[in-house]
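2024-03-11 09:14:02 DEBUG pipeline.ingest accepted 1 chain
2024-03-11 09:14:02 DEBUG pipeline.ingest length=160
2024-03-11 09:14:03 DEBUG pipeline.predict start
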Amino acid sequence: MRLVGRRVLVLFATVWLLTLAAPALAQTDPAVGVWKLNPAKSSYDPGPVPSTGTTTITAVGPGIKISGRGVDAAGKPTLTEYTGAFDGKDTVVVGSPAFDTMSMKRIDANTTEVTRKRAGKIVQTAHRVISQDGKTMTVTTTGINGQGQTINNVTVYEKQ
C-alpha cells in the first residue's frame, strides 16, 4: 500500500508541475505572428521606403520561418523567405537580390542579430527588436543593398 501511495503522490506532483510549467513551455518567440510595414515610421538611406510589406514569422522547431511579401517603391512585388535557428549558422535565403544566406543569434528574448551574406561575404547586418508590449518590431539594417549602395535602413512593423 505504501508503494501505491508514493506512486500516486509522484504522479500527482508530476502533473502539478507540468500544469505550472505548461504556460512557460508554450511561450514562443515574441516575433512570431504577422507584421505589417509602417512606411510612415520607417526610413531608408538611400530611399525610398517600400510601398507595402507584410512579414509572417512562424515558429519551426528551435528556430523560425520568415516570409516577407510586399511591393517596392518602384511598384514591383517582392518575396523573401528563409528558415533558420538562432545558432549563428548560415541558412539559404530565397528571393533577396542583396543576399543569399543569413544567420541569426538571439541577444535576449526580444532582440535578434542577423548577419546577411552574398557569395560567402558579409553584406548586411540587421538588428531586430520587438517592443516590450509586443506590438512593434523595428529592424535596423546597415551594409550594402543589391545595387551596391551603402544602406542605413530602419524598418518599422506593427503586429496584426
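2024-03-11 09:14:41 DEBUG pipeline.report The first helix runs from residue 2 to 26.
2024-03-11 09:14:41 DEBUG pipeline.predict end
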